[in-house]
Amino acid sequence: MTKSDIVERVAKEARLSKRDVEKLVEVVFDSIIEALNKGDKVELRGFGSFRTRERKQRKGRNPKTGAVIEVPAKRVAYFKLGKELRELINNS
Q: Which residues pair with 42 in a beta bridge?
């Protein structure tokens, strides 16, 4: 499912214009991104939560040449399923 599929489905179910729903979806996604950039956790009850984790600097290898390279430290986003969603997925 893509973002445009979500927009189309919400527009149909809510009987709103696609333009309004597209703006709404953009605002929701932008809000999640903004919160994660600040280091906040985003929790959607029954669905799951988005968080960021710090990855330490590490040594890696260039698969083509085999040369050792330094992979810099970075923050990565991850998603943890909520209990209700996990049960719905596993029971269907």
A: 50
pLDDT by residue for the chain (92 residues), tens only, comes to: 999 999 999 999 999 999 999 999 999 999 999 999 999 999 999 999 999 999 999 999 999 999 999 999 999 999 999 999 999 999 87
What is the pTM (predicted TM-score) of this model? 0.79
Closest CA to 52 of 36, 65, 68: 36
Longest dimension (CA), the chain: 57
**SS3 of residue 16 by DSSP:** coil
Q: Exposed e or buried b for every residue in 44-72, given b needs 16+ CB within 10 A?
A: eeeebebbbeeeeeeeeeeeeeeeeeeee
